[in-house]
Records
---
Amino acid sequence: MKDFFNVVTIEQALAFRSVFSELEMEIETVPLIDAFERVLAEPMSATENLPNFRRSTMDGYAVCASSTFGATESNPAFLTVKGTSLMGETPGFSIGSGEACRISTGGMLPVGADSVVMIEHTETIDSTTIEVLRSAAPGQHVIEPGEDFLKGEILLSAGRRLRAQEIGLLAAFGRDTLQVYRKPVVAVISTGDEVVPITETPTPGKILDINTYTLTSMIKACGAVPISYGIVRDNSESLNQTLALALKTSNMVLVSGGSSVGVRDVTIDALSALPKPRILFHGISISPGKPTILAMSQKKALWGLPGHVVSAMIVFLKVVKPFIEYISGIKGLMSQTIKVQALLSRNLSSAQGRVDYVRIKLKTVDGKLVADPILGKSGLISTMVKADGLIEIGLNVEGLDQGEPVEVELLY
Amino acid sequence: MKDFFNVVTIEQALAFRSVFSELEMEIETVPLIDAFERVLAEPMSATENLPNFRRSTMDGYAVCASSTFGATESNPAFLTVKGTSLMGETPGFSIGSGEACRISTGGMLPVGADSVVMIEHTETIDSTTIEVLRSAAPGQHVIEPGEDFLKGEILLSAGRRLRAQEIGLLAAFGRDTLQVYRKPVVAVISTGDEVVPITETPTPGKILDINTYTLTSMIKACGAVPISYGIVRDNSESLNQTLALALKTSNMVLVSGGSSVGVRDVTIDALSALPKPRILFHGISISPGKPTILAMSQKKALWGLPGHVVSAMIVFLKVVKPFIEYISGIKGLMSQTIKVQALLSRNLSSAQGRVDYVRIKLKTVDGKLVADPILGKSGLISTMVKADGLIEIGLNVEGLDQGEPVEVELLY
C-alpha cells in the first residue's frame, strides 16, 4: 500500500463526489425562523394564489379604469366616493362606472374595481366627490391574484439553499416548519509529532496547531458542523483508533499534516486499516496541495490534507468544500465562489502539468482593480492573512503576463 | 411632525452613520474556536517570532549550502550523514562542512545547517553517506525564524472581521481566548392591520407576515442577532409601547410596513413620542425604497422601512446593513458586497434624480455573463426569488443600453 501513488487532476478529483451519492444526509424538521442558509429537503408548491386577492400597490382610489378614460387636468373625470377599503378587510360594497373607493397600499380592491388612481392624480371636491386628473389603465397600480405565484406552481425544489428571499417566500405560504437536510458533521484531526495544542507553550522545534482552527472555521463557512479530535501522534495505531471514532461520529473526516514521506505512510497505513478501505487518489496535480489523499470507508470520505497551513486551506477551498456541499444535499449551484476581474500586476510563471493557485492582494490603481500576487512559501500563514483572493493558472499554461485580466476568487 | 419630509440621497443617508459613533458595542471574551466571523476588539501583535526556529519545507537533508556548490549528477558532492532531526525536537548535534542531517518537512535544522536538499536530489550510498546531485542555495527549502511574522510586528488591528486565516494566525500565537465586540441585537417589528402571523390562515384581505422572516435572515447574514417583536397594529400607541420595549432590548430597531400615508404618520408619531427623538431623514431618493425613515432615540437608530417585501429587502441591503456593520465595530472594508461584471440584455430606462436598483437574473450566453433584468412590482417576492443580484442605475443616469457592461451585486 505504501507504493500506491495515483495522482489525479482537479477535475478527476472532483468527479469522485459521485462515489458518495449513497451517503444522503438525514432529514430534520426545523422552524422557518431557523431555516436561513439550510438546504431544503422537500419540493415546495404554491398552496394558494399569492396574493389571493386583488391588492393595491399605491395609496389612492380604486376605480373602474373606463370611468377615467380621457381624463386630464383641464378635463377631469368626476367620481363618487362610495367608501373606504379598510386594511385587511373585504370591502362590503362593489364599484361601478363613475364610482371610486378610498384605498391604501396593500388594501383589497372592491368587486368591480380594476385599477387604482394615485392620490397625487386626484383632487378632493367634497367628502363624496373626487376629480381624477389622468386616465387610468386597467390593472394600473394593482397586483392581481396569483400574480406573484399561481396555486400549484412549483416554488422551490429540494436541494435549494435558502436565502432571505426563499425564507420570505415560505413565510408567504404559511410554512412555519419545513424539512431540511441535517448539516454534515465533519471531523478534524491534526497529526504531527511537532504539533502541540495552542494552550501549551511550544518548546523549540514544536509549533502550535493552526490547522484545527483554520479548518473548523472553513467547515462552518460551508454550513457544516466541525468536530475537533485534537492532535494525534504520528503512528498508525493511534491515528487508526481516532479515525475509527471520527468515522462513527461524523459524515466526513479531515486529517491534516502528513505531507512528509514518513507521515504520509502513517496516514495511508491508518486509512488502510479501516473497514473496507478504498484509496481513491493519492496526489492532485495542483500547487500548493499536491500530497492530498482521498479514501473511502463505510461510504464516507476521509481526507489526508497537507500539513502546511496554506496548502491545507487551498485544498479545502478547491476540493474538500465541493464534497461537503455535495453531501449537504445542495443541488444546482454547487459552490458559492465569488470572482472579480482584475489586471495582473506582474508576470507569473507556472509549471505545466499542474494547476497553480496564487494568493492575491487586490489594489485599485488609476481606478482599475489590480491583482498583486503574494509570493511566499505555503508554510507562511501571513500570505493568507494578506490575501484577498486566489487566482488559478491552468494545467497547460506556462504563465501569465503582466497586465493580463485574471479572475480573482475572493477569500471572504 | 406629520408634514416633516426630508428626502436625502443614498450618500447622505449613509453619512448619518457617524451620528451613532457614541454607540460602541460592548466587548466580550470568547474562545478562539468560536471567534470565526467575529469582530476583533483589541489590536494583536506578534509575541514571538513565527516560526521561532529554522524549519525545513521539504523532506531531505539539512546541509551547509557551501558543501554542495558545483554538485551535479556527474560530479556529485559526497556528504556524511551525522544523524536525524526528529520532528518536534532540537537536534542534539551541529552540522559542519561536508556533513548532512536527515530532516522531514517541518523539522528543525541543526546548528550550522543553512539549507535543505530535497531527497529527490540525493542518492544514498550507505547508512552514513549520501551523494548530493545539485547545488543548494543558502536558505533553500527553509523557513527562517520570523519569516512569517517578526516578534513585535502588528498582526491585526481592532475592528478586523476574522476569517479562517485570521483565526489560524491567532492560533499560531497561542491566543486561545480573545476580545471581540458583542454582536449587535437588532429588533424587528412588523406593522399593518392587513398582516397576520404565518401560523394563521389569512382571511380575505389579509396577508402573512413575510418581512419578519426576510429581515431576521438578513440580520443574521450581517453577523448580528435578530429579535422579533411580531406584528403591531397600526396605531401609534401600541407601536410606541413596542418601540420602547425594543429600544431597551436591542441596539437598533427596524419597523417594517407603513409605506402608506396613514401608517407612515403612525410610525412618525410613534417615533416622535420616544424619549428625545430626532428624525434624521424621511425619504431616500432610491427606487424601490423611497419611503424610508431614520430616527434616533437614546443614541440608537430606529428605522421605518417600506412594507413591500422587495423594497424592504433592498433598503436593508443598501442602507441598513452598512449601519449594522458600522455599529458592529468593523473598520476598513465596510461591506461584504460582491460584484460581478455582466452585459445588460436589454435597454433600461430610469428616472433622473433617484438611484434605481434593478433585480437581475444572471445567464451565460456564448460564454459571456449576461444580466437579464427582472421587471416586476416591488410587492412581488417572486422577483427576488428569481434574482441572482442587483444593478444600480445612478442618480443622474437616464437609462442603460442593451449590451452595456454592468456591475451586478450578488444576492447570496
Note: The CA atoms of residues 310 and 384 of chain B lie 7 Å apart.
---
Amino acid sequence: MIVVLRPGATDEQIEQVKQRLEQRGYGVHVSRGVARTILGAIGALDQEKELVAESLEALPFVERVVPILKPYKLVSSEAQPERSRISVGGVMVGGEQVVVMAGPCSVENREQIIACARAVKDAGARVLRGGAFKPRTSPYDFQGLGEEGLQILAAARQETGLPIVTEVRDVRQVALVGQYADLLQTGARNMHNFDLLKELGQSHKPVLLKRGFAATVEEWLKAAEYVAASGNLQIILCERGIRTFETATRFTLDLSAVAVAQAETHLPVMVDPSHASGDARLVPSLALGAVATGADGLLVEVHPAPEQALSDGPQSLRPEAFAELMAQVRAVAQAIGRCL
Amino acid sequence: MIVVLRPGATDEQIEQVKQRLEQRGYGVHVSRGVARTILGAIGALDQEKELVAESLEALPFVERVVPILKPYKLVSSEAQPERSRISVGGVMVGGEQVVVMAGPCSVENREQIIACARAVKDAGARVLRGGAFKPRTSPYDFQGLGEEGLQILAAARQETGLPIVTEVRDVRQVALVGQYADLLQTGARNMHNFDLLKELGQSHKPVLLKRGFAATVEEWLKAAEYVAASGNLQIILCERGIRTFETATRFTLDLSAVAVAQAETHLPVMVDPSHASGDARLVPSLALGAVATGADGLLVEVHPAPEQALSDGPQSLRPEAFAELMAQVRAVAQAIGRCL
Amino acid sequence: MIVVLRPGATDEQIEQVKQRLEQRGYGVHVSRGVARTILGAIGALDQEKELVAESLEALPFVERVVPILKPYKLVSSEAQPERSRISVGGVMVGGEQVVVMAGPCSVENREQIIACARAVKDAGARVLRGGAFKPRTSPYDFQGLGEEGLQILAAARQETGLPIVTEVRDVRQVALVGQYADLLQTGARNMHNFDLLKELGQSHKPVLLKRGFAATVEEWLKAAEYVAASGNLQIILCERGIRTFETATRFTLDLSAVAVAQAETHLPVMVDPSHASGDARLVPSLALGAVATGADGLLVEVHPAPEQALSDGPQSLRPEAFAELMAQVRAVAQAIGRCL
Amino acid sequence: MIVVLRPGATDEQIEQVKQRLEQRGYGVHVSRGVARTILGAIGALDQEKELVAESLEALPFVERVVPILKPYKLVSSEAQPERSRISVGGVMVGGEQVVVMAGPCSVENREQIIACARAVKDAGARVLRGGAFKPRTSPYDFQGLGEEGLQILAAARQETGLPIVTEVRDVRQVALVGQYADLLQTGARNMHNFDLLKELGQSHKPVLLKRGFAATVEEWLKAAEYVAASGNLQIILCERGIRTFETATRFTLDLSAVAVAQAETHLPVMVDPSHASGDARLVPSLALGAVATGADGLLVEVHPAPEQALSDGPQSLRPEAFAELMAQVRAVAQAIGRCL
C-alpha cells in the first residue's frame, strides 16, 4: 500500500508510520517530495490489510492510504487464470455455450410452471427459473408460495429435465432450498447480507450471486470472496442493473461490469435483462447486447400471461416473444464464436 | 391511480382496463384527449394496489400507471398527524430534546467501552452505541465479539445508566440482542432484508431503521411500514448517507431526506454523520448541519484511540473532540428552539 | 396533465385550480376520492405546459402535477413514425447499415491524421473523427489545434474520401467548423448549452448530439428538440456513458438508453464505447454489445500510438485492434439483419 | 505519482516507464513486491502531469497511475492558507458575516424587482439576485428579458443600494452582463463550459461558480482553477445540489461538499437551497442546515407571488416566509460564532 502524508509531516510522524508498517511485516520505502512525503509498503502476507489501512488513515497527519492489491483473492483471475466452468445439474456455465435460464418471476401454481417450463425448454432454455420465496418491497405484496413452490419446481424438473434455479432470501432457508434447487440464487438486495453469504459458502450447491443494485464491481467480487472463503467456489455472477439517476428504465444495465468482472475473476458472468429494465419491450435488445458483450448466460422472465402475473408482469416476456428472442440470441452467439 | 393508454388505444382496450378496475372496486372516469386517453381510478380500499398497477402496465396498450397515494400508511403523517415520541430505555426521542447517541463502532473490550461510555455521558450523550455483531464487507475483517460484546454493553449501562443501541445483523439474533439492548438497530445494508424487518416488527423493543445507502426515501418509509405492519410502531428513522458519484466523502449525507421523512411520517428522524462522511474531520460540520435542519438526534462514533480501533477508526472522534462538538450542538439546538 | 391536491383541499381551492386550467383552454374533470381530489386536464394546445404545471405546483394546496405528454414533439416517434435517415457527406446513418466513425481524440498533426484515416477506412469505417477544439477539464491540458486542425481534417477527407465529424465547443465556432465538417458534434458537457443548441439548429449541417453524462433520456431528447425547434432536424443522437457510483469504468455505458431513444424518437442513435469506458481493453466488448442492442453506429477512438497521444490515450485502440474489432462488428451486425 | 505495473511486467518494461518519468524530470523509486512492481515518481515541476499519467496508462503493462497531488493549485488552501474574502459591490463574502443573496428566479418587470428588492433588504439580505438570461431545458419556456432585465436590476440597485448578482449563460454576454452586475454567476449546466470559464477569468468582476449537478468536488475546484488560471481569483463557490437516484427532491443538496471545499481551497462557499430542493417547503430547513454546516452565504429564491412566477415558482419563498427564515438564520449564525 502507499501512504500519503499531509504537507508538513514531521520526521517523528514519518518514523511512526514506518514503524507501524514494519511491525506488520511490510518492507517500507520513504520518498520525500517537495509537497508530500509518501511511503511505499510492500510484501506483507497480511489478511488484515484493510484494518492496517484504516488505522493509518485515522492518524491526523496521514492524508490517505492507497491500496495496491485488490481486496479479493480466491475468486481473482490472478489466483486462477483459466476460467471456471460451473455445473448446474449437469448444464455447464462458463464454457462455449451461452446458457439461458428462463421462467416466471413467482411460482404461482403447478400448471403455470409446467406449461412455462415446456415452452422455455422448446425455445432453447437450459435451466428453469422461478421464485418460491419472494423479497417484496411492500409488506402488502404477494410473498411467494414457500416450500409448496419448491415442490412445484421439482415436479417441473422431473417433467422436463430442466435443472432449476430459485432464490434463497433468508439464512434459515438455505438447507430447505438446497434440497430442491440445482442453483441457489441470492437477490440483489441480499448481496450485502454477509450471514447469508457465509451459509451459502457452506452449502454444496452452486450459487448465483446477483450484483447489488448499488454495489460497485469491487464490492460484488468481495461478496463472491465471502462465499469462496466459506468453502464454496461454485459461484456464477449475475449483473442485473444498477441504480442511477435515470428513470426511463427501472435500473441501468451495466454491461461494462460484465467485461470487468470477467477480466478480474475466473467466474462465469450472466446478465438479467428483465430486472434491469423492468419493461418487456426492452428485454430483447438488452439480451442481445449482453450476449454480444460476452455474457456467459441470460436470466429471463417468461410468463404465459404477464397481465395476470402475481409479480413482475410488466417485465415478463410471453412464450412466443421469448422463442423469437432465442432465435436471435443463437445468431448473435454464433457471430462471436459461441453457441446456445 | 391514473392509467395512461398509448396513442391509438381502441374502445375495446379502454373498456378492458375500465372493467378490470371496476372489478377491484374502483370508480373510474375516462378522459379522451387528442393525444392520449387517460383513466382516473379512485376509491378502492385495496391492499394490492401495486399488483393491480403492475398487471395493467403489463398490457401492451397501457403506457404507464401513475399512483396517487403513497405506498405506506401506518407510518404516514396522514394516518397520524401528531409526531411520535419513542422511549429508548426512558430517553424520549422525537420531542423537544435532540438526543445524541455515541460510542465506538465495535465493542472491543470492557475497559474501552466503560471509559467511552463515561466520556460520552459527561459530554451530554443520552444513549451509548456499540457494535457486537459487525457486518463487514470483507470476509477477512473483524466480525465483532458477539454475545460477549452485548454483555459488555450491558455492564456499561449498569455503570453509567445510559441505555444502549446496537445492531442486529441476522434474523437469528433478534431474540438474543433484544435481551440486552434498549434499541435495536438495523444497518443500511439490511434495510431491504424483509425477513429481518418482520422479526423486528414482532419484537417489543424500539427499532432504529437506518436508510439503505441506495434507497429512496419512499423505499425507506416502505421498510418502516414493513416493521409497523408486523406489529411494532416504535420506529426511529436514521439517515446515514447515500451512494452517489461523489468520492470525496464515503457517502453523500442527504439532509433533505430528514425534512422529507419528517413531513411524510410521524416518526422521529436521526442522522449519522460518522458513516455518511467516513472522515472524522467532517463529522462536526455535518452534525451541526443535521441539527439545524431539524434532526431529532445524532448517532456519532467516538473512540478513545481511533488509530487503534478495530473498525471505522478514520471516522471516529476522540472524546475531547466530541465534547467540543457537543457544546456547539447545544448552541445550535437552542437557536432553533430545542435543547440537548 | 393530472393535478393532485393535498388532503383537505377546500371547494374554493378546487375551483381555483379548475378555473386556472380552463382559462388556458383545458377541459377539466374533477374526481373527489376519499383521500385525495384529483383534476384531469386535457386538450389544450399549449406551448407553455411546463409553466402552467410549475405555477400550479407553487400553490400550497397542490401536492403535485403529473404531466401526461412528453416534453418533446418534433423529434418524437409520435410526430413521425418512420425512422429518419441522416446523410453525413453522403453516408446514410439510420438505415440498414451500421455506420462506424473512427479516428483519434485530438488532431495532432497531418501525418497522424492521414495515416489514421487510411487505416480506419481500410478496416471499414465510413466517417473520420478527430478533435480540433478540445474541451479539457484542466486548464493546463492540450486544448487542440483549432482551425489548423480543421484544415488537416479536410486534407484527410480529400485524401481518403471519408466525411469528417468534429466537435463544436463554443457558439462562436459554429460557422467556422461548419465550413470544414460534414457532421457537427456537441460534447456531453455541452448538451445543456442551450445557446449552442440554438446555433446548431440554425446551421445547415447535421448534428451529432451526445448525451450529457448526467442527463436523463428525457432531457437528452429535450435538447434534441431545442435543435429541431431552431430549424434543423438532421440530428443523430449518441450515447456515451453516464455518471454513476461505479468507478471501475470512467462512465457507465447505458445501452438501455439506445433502445429507449429509438422507441421515443425517429432519430438515429449511435454509441461511443471509448469515452464510456475510458479503457481500450473494454472497448471491443462494449462496441459489439452496442451493435447487438441495435445502435445505428459507433464512434470509436483509434490512435496509431496511444501511449504518445496528446489526449485520451488509455481509451484509444491501435489500428490493428480496430481492424480486428471491425470483423466482429460485421458478424454481429449480420446476425441481427444489418450490415457494416 | 505512483505507477502500478501489471503482474509479470518485465525488466525492460519497468525500465521503459522509469526512463519516461526521468525524462520528464521526475525522481523515480522502483519497489518490486511479490505481486506487483510499483514506481514512485516525485519532484517534477510539471504542468502536464495529467498527460504524463494518461500516456503511461495507455501502456498495456501498466495497471494504473495514482496521482499524489491535487489537480488544482491557485485555488488550493496549500497555495494560500488564509481564507479569501471577496468583495461584491462592497459586501464582503468569506468573513464572519453569513451573506444572503435573495430575489426572484427571473426578472419579470420593474415593479416585481423593486418590490422584491425592498422586501429582501428589509429582511436582511445583502445582495439582490435575479435572472435576465435564463437557461431553460425546454425551447418553449420563457428565456428571460435579456438586457432590459439587466437595466431593471440596475434600477433596483440604485433604489435599494443592494449589489446585484445575475447569470451569464453565454461567452458573448460576459462583457454586457459585466457592465451591470456586481457578481457574475455561472449556472450549474455551464460549470464545464470551459470557454465561458476563460472569459470570466479575464473579467474584472467577481464570479459565483455554481457546482455542476454531476460534478465531483474535485472537478468543481478544477473549474475554479480554470477561472483563476485565466487571471481572476475573485471566485465564490456555490453548492446547489447534485443529481442522484433520489426523486423526492429535485437534486440532493450535498452539504459535505461545503466542508470539503472549504478545507481544500481558500475560497468562500455558498449554498443555494432553492435549486437543490425545488420545493419551497424544504428551503428553510436546508438553509439553516447550510449555515450550521459552515456555509459563507445563501442564495435564496424569493417571489412576491410564486404561483404567478414565470419560472421556478414551486421553489420560491414568499417575502413573509423569507423574513421568518432570516430570523432563524440569524440565530443559527450566532450559535456558531458568526453574524448575518
Note: DSSP finds eleven helices and 14 strands in chain D.
---
Amino acid sequence: MKRYLILAEGFSHDPHYGKTMRGVVRYRPHPVVAILDSKRAGETYEGIPIVASVADALPGEPTTALVGVAVAGGRLPPEWRGILRSAIEVGLDVEAGMHEFLADDPEFADLAAKQGVELRDVRRPPADLSVPTGANLTHGAQVVLTVGSDCAIGKKTVALELDREARRRGLRSVFVPTGQTGIMIAGWGIAVDAVVADFLAGAAERLVVEGAERGDLLWVEGQGSLLHPQFSGVTLGLYHGSAPHVLVLCHAAGSTEIEGCPGHSIPPLPELVELHERSALPARPAKVAAVALNTSRLGDDESLQAIEAAERETGLPTDDPVRFSPVRLVDAVLDRLPAQDQLEAPGIRAG
Amino acid sequence: MKRYLILAEGFSHDPHYGKTMRGVVRYRPHPVVAILDSKRAGETYEGIPIVASVADALPGEPTTALVGVAVAGGRLPPEWRGILRSAIEVGLDVEAGMHEFLADDPEFADLAAKQGVELRDVRRPPADLSVPTGANLTHGAQVVLTVGSDCAIGKKTVALELDREARRRGLRSVFVPTGQTGIMIAGWGIAVDAVVADFLAGAAERLVVEGAERGDLLWVEGQGSLLHPQFSGVTLGLYHGSAPHVLVLCHAAGSTEIEGCPGHSIPPLPELVELHERSALPARPAKVAAVALNTSRLGDDESLQAIEAAERETGLPTDDPVRFSPVRLVDAVLDRLPAQDQLEAPGIRAG
C-alpha cells in the first residue's frame, strides 16, 4: 500500500506549475500524508499538512515521494536535488513525471540502488512505439477527447469527472491518461508529450486501443491547445491519434490570452469550436458536444452568468463539472456519440 | 572531401521510401560514386552506377556510406545489418537518419571504433532543447514554410528550388532543413520529427533563429501534413514553432488520398488553403502565397492543365518548380511577405 509525500517546494500554491500535486490530492489514488513546501510549512492544503522537510513528514509514514510540480520543459530545478536525495536517503520510492529521468541520473540511481528504493519515471515512453496502424479507427469503443483553449485549465479534470459520472450511470467507462498526473492517478497510460514526435499519434492510438480493452466509453485526457505556441503539435498528434468521435471543449472563463505567452490571444469560443471541428481528420469527423467551463476564478453569480453566456455564444450545453455538475455534459456527449454500429470511420474497414 | 556510396537496398526504385537517396542525388552536396541495391545491380540512376554490394562500390573510392532509405517509423530492417557491417568493415564512415541511432548500437559502435570510422546519426536531436521562448517572432528574418497535402510530395524540394531562385536574384536566402535528407544536403539543421514531442516547437524556433543568423529570407522545409493521420502533430508543431509569415502549399497533382493510408482522403485545394490559414497562430497569421504542384506523374500537356486548374480553383499562382520554373512562385511569395519593418507579430514586442 502506497502512502504519498508530495514534493511541491516553492509551487504548492501555484495552480499551473503545481497541477500534478493538485490532481493527485483531488483524486487521491493513494493516501497523501504530507506536502513538502518549506515556504508554507505549518499550513495545510485540502486537510493535508504542509511540512518543511522530508524528515518532518516521516511521522505520517510515507512510502513514496511524488514530484508534484511540473516545470516548463519538464526539467528539474537544481535546488530540488537536495530534496530528492533526502527522500531517497530515508528509504522512500520516488515517482516523477519530468523529461529528465531520475533513474538515468547517476547520483540518484546509485543512491536508490544503495537504499533499495525504486525510482519511477512515469513520463518514460514505451520503447517499442511507432506510427499508428489504423487500429485507432476500428477498436469498437466510443471515444471522447477533452480539448481546450490553453494548458492547465482542467482538460484532465473534466475527463476524470465525466468518466466518474458515466460510471455512476453503470456505463463501462474509462479515463485514458495521456500525461504524468493522469498516469499517477489512474496507474497506467503514456505521457504523449514525452514520446519522439514522429510517434505522437502512434502513442495515442496505443492508448485508445488499450482503453477499448478496458471499457466501451473512453474519456481521453487532452493536452495543450491547438493554438498554444509551445505545445500545439502534441495537441494535434493526440487528437488525430486518439481519433475521437466527440470533443468536449474546455475553457477558463474570461481568459483571452494563453497563460505565460503575452500577445498570444485566445479567440472567442465559437471560433474555437469551429477550429477544432475543422481540424478533425476527414476519415473521423468529430463535433464538439459540450463546453466545460472552468469558473474557479469567479464568484457563484458570475459563474452562472459565464456559463449562460458560453451556452448562448456556442449553442452548446455548458457547465462547470467541478463547481456544479457533470450531468448535463455527460448527457450532451452521450447524445452526440454515434451508435455502436456506426463507430467506424467512413471509408475505413476493420481488420 | 566526402564521396558517397548510397545504401538503398530494395528501395532505389521507390519515390517514397527512397526519398533520402533521391534528394541527395538531386542536390549532390558531395559526389555520389555508387548506389547499392542488389536487385537492380548493373542499372544506373541519374548516371550513377547501381551495385550489388559494398565491395563492388570500392573502385569508385567512396569515403562515406549514406543510408538512403527512410522506413516508416525510421527503424532499420534486419537485413540491413549485414550491409552496414560490411560498409564499416571496409573503413567507410556511415551517415544515417533513422530513429534508431547507429552509434547507440553496441555492435556497430564497437566495429566502428575498431575500424576508426565515424557513425553520424543526423536525426539525433540536440541535448538541450526546450519549449520556444518567443524568439521565433522577433528574429528579424522573413520566413516561408512549405506545407502540403501529404508526405513525400516535394515540400523539401520546393523549399530548395525556391531558395535557389531567390539566391539567383541576389537575396540573402537560406534553406532551413528540418528532416534527415535536408540536413544531409545542407549540412546543418534538426530533424524535428525525432525530438521529444514537447520540444517540437522549440526545435523549430531554434532553426529559424539560427536561419536568421545565416540570412534574411528563410525557406523552412515542411514536414508531413496537417491532415496526415500519422504525422500531423509534427506538422503543426513545426508550423507554430517556425512561425512563418507566408506558406507555399505543395500537392501532388491528382492525389485524393494520403499515400499508404486508405480511407484518409485529401480535400480539394481551396479547403487545404483555408485549413492552413485557419491553423496559424493568431499572433502570426500566415497566408498561402502560392501552390507548388508536383506533376511528376503526368505528361507535359496534362501537367499544364493541372497547373491551370489548380490556379483557377485556388486563385493562387501555381507552378511545378522542378518540371517548369520556380520564378512565378518566388514572385508570389515576395509579393506576400511583409516589409522588413512589419515582420514582428502583432502584440509581440521584440526582446
Note: Residues 110 and 207 of chain A are 33 Å apart (CA to CA).
---
Amino acid sequence: MADSSEIDFTVRPIGRVQSPLTSTADAPRQGDEGAPDAYLILDPEVHVGLDGIAAGDEIVLLTWLHKADRSVLRVHPRGDLSRPEAGVFSTRASSRPNPIGLHRVRVLDIDGHRLHVSSLEAIDGTPIVDVKPVLGAIDER
Amino acid sequence: MADSSEIDFTVRPIGRVQSPLTSTADAPRQGDEGAPDAYLILDPEVHVGLDGIAAGDEIVLLTWLHKADRSVLRVHPRGDLSRPEAGVFSTRASSRPNPIGLHRVRVLDIDGHRLHVSSLEAIDGTPIVDVKPVLGAIDER
C-alpha cells in the first residue's frame, strides 16, 4: 500500500486561544491539573457555526499545538525520565506527527464569537481547529 | 485581530481505515449506533509510535473526514429536516471547516502496525491523523 501521507490536507484555523498561560513550560499537562480559565476567540466568518452552544455546555475543543515537534515518535510519558520511553500514540504528549490538542472544557459564558471556558491547558495564541459537543446518550442526540 | 486562517497547517495522514463501510450514506452516525469493527492500518514509518498500546485498551482515534463539505456552517442536526438548523460546532456533523473525526474505540487486537478496533463509523479509506489514549484518573497518568 502506498504511504498515506502522499495526500495531505490543510487545516485552516478558525480562531485562537486567549489565555494567561504564555509558555508551554508553565502549562499544566491537562486541563484538570490546575489549568486556568481562558477565552476562545473565534473568527467572525465562522460565528454562525456557534449557534446552539450555550453557557454551561461541555464541549470538546480541538487545537493545533503549534509549538510541538512533529518528528517525535517516542517519549518518556509526562516528561518523567524515570519512566521508560513509550510510543507517542500511547501518550498525550503534544509532540507527535499531527499535533492536534484535544480538550474537554465547560463554556462559562458566550459573547458573540468569544467563548469563556474553564480549565484549559493550551497556551495563549494556540490555533483553534474545531469545536464539538460532548456526546450524550443515544436518545438525546 | 488578523484572521486566524492566515497561517495554515498541513495534516499528513499516518494511515488509513480499512472497513466494510464503503459509503457515508451507509455509515451509522456514531460508533455506538451499530458501526462494524474495522482495521487501522498505520504507515510503517510511525509503527514505533504504537509501542505501549495493547489489546483491550480504549483509544481516541482522530481521522480526516475526506468526504466532508468544508463550507458548511449550519446543519439540521443528524440530517433530520424536522429539527431546526443549528451551528455545526454544536453538532457532530462531519461537514465543517476542519472535518476532523473523533472516535472512541476499543483495541481488539494488534498485529504490528495493524490495529483491529471495535465499532468504528468511519468509512473504508478514511485517513488516520492521530491516536491517543483515553485519559484515566489523574494519579494513573
Note: The mean pLDDT of chain A is 93.
